[in-house]
TrEMBL record:
NCBIfam families in alphabetical order: C69_fam_dipept
Reaction equations catalysed: an L-aminoacyl-L-amino acid + H2O = 2 an L-alpha-amino acid
Family: Belongs to the peptidase C69 family.
Source species, domain of life: Bacteria
Pfam families: Peptidase_C69
Keyword Repeat: no
Keywords: Dipeptidase, Hydrolase, Protease
InterPro entries: C69_dipept_A-like, Peptidase_C69
Protein name, as recorded: Dipeptidase
Amino acid sequence: MSASNHSSCTTLLVGKNASYDGATLIARNEDAGEAVHPKKFVVVHHEDQPVDYHAKLSQFSITLPDQPVRYTSMPDAATDEGIWGEAGVNLDNVAMSATETITTNARILGADPFVKNGFGEEDLLTITLPYIKTARQGVQRVGQLLKKYGTYESNGIIFSDINEIWYMETAGGHHWVAQRIPDDAYVIAPNQTGIQEVKFDDPDNFMYSADLLKFVEKNHLNLGEGFNFRKIFGSDTQLDHHYNTPRAWFGQRYFNPKRVANQSPESADLPFINYADRKITIEDIKYVLSSHYQDTPYDPFAPSADYHTNPYRPIGFNRNQELSILQIRPYVPKAFAAIQWIAFAANPFNTLAPFYTNILDTPDCYRDTTTLVDSHNAYWANRLISLIAADHYSEVMADIEAYQQATLAYGHQRISRIDKTVADKTGGDLMQALSQANERTADRIMKDTEDLLTKLVTKVSDHSRGAFTRDHY
């Protein structure tokens, strides 16, 4: 597998004043190049963090700093192609999601070629998250790594803490810009360079590679006015119009229906920074990142649709592998402020489970994923459900939507209950209590998932192709 097989993600970021509860929220679908690419949820303790790190897809290697902190991660179940940690929260409540693969153009790659043996998405969470104490430090660390080692691909990298969200975009082998997302704003990023006007005199809200201005000037890269990072470093191709921009269009249409009413799904001018008409919830994020353009002419599950001719790539589709929504809450003690909401497989048909991240271990049904099908494992149970639902959409969606509502309600109930239960605990006792609480949450959601799978198999089996009864005589 090449790096491009992980290059189909969609990111949604919500500033603390734009979210329903004052938390920073960063979320990203991890999509693979194939429908089945098993994932798992783990916690990495400092003693398990590598010292001498070696990539699998390139010759990149690095000696990592001393004293890493504990962090959660969403690695591949198979290890032969690398870790691909993707999303997690560390001991200091810094969240990271890496990466949103993005596009660039030939002029940039001519001036600053990719580095064949640099680092990439495979490596980024592992070599960054255990060594940072703030979101801003995350940008700074990756910037230093880019300067020294370079990268073999273009990526959008997300960091958050209790106060800030930073979105960092690389371009070429060594150059980059990062923008602090305004507290009252949201962002949808769909595999395209997104950051627009860069303010070089505003260090509170922008960071960038030290030679960025000179690099652009020397290589005659700026074709317009100001310094629009998207227009200088990004792309505007036919593929973008059908594969990327429709996803931003749908999300902005959902949060700002009046403003986007007359916009085309192929528009190249959709803004990067957006301001919703209302506060944004966990359910809103799940809805948008599960979108198959429902209630539009482009829904591949509409009764008259032919998904083979659908012009636009959906957000929620068969190649979704995992969704992590990383929530850092300001209204509870720091020791249990961070929650990682997790969903596996195709988002239109799965549900979210909320897990505290200050833990000793993760629930086995989310942790012990292998490459073999196992209906008692969260990834595989949801993969089986999505396979059935895609071919029997109208028959089973009522059951799936009831399951989604019930499990999301249960998730919110669990958070409220656990917050109260652990309020007087500290240190190892707290970690143990949160680990046990996560286990109970996983057990309940896994039971509901297995019940749904049983119901769907039973329902569609009676009407499967080749069915026959004695009544036919």
